[in-house]
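Re: [ENG-882] Designed sequences occasionally contain unexpected residues at chain ends

Forwarding the minimal case from QA. Structure tokens:
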């Protein structure tokens, strides 16, 4: 059995201090070890992984909807996020409960 190596885990304050360090310059790092520099075009193609916790029933409903539309779960959530963000930039969102109250306050249309 090999000995397991344990590395110290920095605190959030230590990480922040390191990242704010003006002496941390990527030019000092060999090119083969430096992180890639992304152009704006490259950045548009980068996909970021996010972890998300949700109730099991909500997950099942989203998966079923994605399957019905013939897309992946991720594609569906990306589409919904893009739609919501577009709506937020053009509109002032209200809660569903407020919308239902507003609709309920409209008197029924009288027909002859």
């Amino acid at each position: 059995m090999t000995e397991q190596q344990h590395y110290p885990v920095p605190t959030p304050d230590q990480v922040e201090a390191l990242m704010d360090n003006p002496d941390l310059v990527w030019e000092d790092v060999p090119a083969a070890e430096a992180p890639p520099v992304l152009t704006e075009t490259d950045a548009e193609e980068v996909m970021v992984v996010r972890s998300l916790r949700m109730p099991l029933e909500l997950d099942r409903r989203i998966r079923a909807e994605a399957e019905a539309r013939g897309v992946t779960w991720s594609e569906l959530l990306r589409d919904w996020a893009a739609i919501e963000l577009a709506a937020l930039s053009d509109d002032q969102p209200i809660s569903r409960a407020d919308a239902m109250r507003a609709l309920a306050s409209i008197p029924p249309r009288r027909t002859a």
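QA comment: On inspection the terminal residues look reasonable. The mean pLDDT is 81. Proposing we downgrade this to a documentation issue.
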